[in-house]
Amino acid sequence: MRFSLFYNFDVLPPKQLTELYRDVEAQAIAADKLGFDAIWLAEHHFALYDRLPSPLLFLARLSAITQQIRLGSAIVKAPYYHPLRLAEDTALLDVLSRGRVRLGVGSGAKNKPQEFVPFGVALEEKSARTCEIIAILHQAFVSGWVNFEG
């Protein structure tokens, strides 16, 4: 059996966001030493509670303070990103972490329009956009080249 950690980054008063981030760092170090398989981070924007705007950036931090635990996004909200930037950032993180990255992508929750509007993403386009981004990411990671019209 394998064990993983998952963080949605719920911040409830009186806890502060910086305190939560430090707690997650300490727990990641402990889980790494205990032989846990992975740590998964969720992406959220503009919410009063779930607050981690950049799982890849936080995973880069965790890669520097852990040795073997796998580092995963659960999920990166694909419609917010340019697919080539997402592919490059993920590839760089995978190199820095010595091959420990697991990229989870998705379209995001339908019931949170406050996350989509500031990124200029229409809710009715998010699914189609996510499908295109997944296809582009697949091309980039499998062949190293992208040839896509969409």
Descriptive labels:
single chain; 150 residues; TIM Barrel; alpha/beta; four-stranded parallel sheet
Offer a quick outline of the entry.
This protein has 150 residues and is an alpha/beta fold. 43% of the residues lie in helices and 12% in strands.
Descriptive notes:
By secondary structure, this protein is α/β, with parallel strands linked by helices. It has one domain: TIM Barrel (Alpha-Beta Barrel), CATH 3.20.20. Helices cover 43% and strands 12% of the residues. It is built from five helices and six strands, in the order βαβαββαββαα. The strands form two sheets. It has a four-stranded parallel beta sheet with strand order 1-2-3-5. Strands 4-6 form a two-stranded parallel sheet. α2 packs parallel to α3 (83-96). The longest helix is centred in the N-terminal third of the chain and has 18 residues, at 17-34.
Proportion of helical residues: 40-55%
Gyration radius (Cα, Å) is 16 Å
Largest sheet: 4 strands, parallel
Beta-strand portion reads 5-15%
Give the SSE order as H and E letters. EHEHEEHEEHH
The protein's oligomeric status is single chain
The poorly predicted ranges are none
Give the termini distance in whole angstroms.
Answer: 41 Å
Examine the secondary-structure arrangement and name the CATH architecture: Alpha-Beta Barrel
**CATH H-level superfamily title:** Luciferase-like domain
The CATH class name reads Alpha Beta
